[in-house]
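Person: At home tonight, work slowly through the protein below, taking as long as you need, and write a paragraph about the fold.
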Amino acid sequence: MSPEGNDEEREVALGSAIDALGITGTLASGELVAGAIVLMKVLQEDGITRLSVSHSDGLGWLERAGMLRIAETMEAGSTHTHPPDSEG
């Protein structure tokens, strides 16, 4: 049995699971998704919940850290999505 207590863990594509949750995003015409981080609350068979994170290929640790920090700031209610101008 694995340290997490589930000896049947396997990697699966998350597209249909995310679709089933009704998660959508906003893209303008011509924009493409270049990378993604997925933070999941997983309900295990024994009723315990855990957090899990996955990311798309090609995202380096610095990009992932930056994306998570920006997401945290956005979720905290900040109206600023761009850094302030350096003019002053």
About this structure: The helical segments are 15-20, 61-75. The first strand starts at residue 37 and ends at 43.
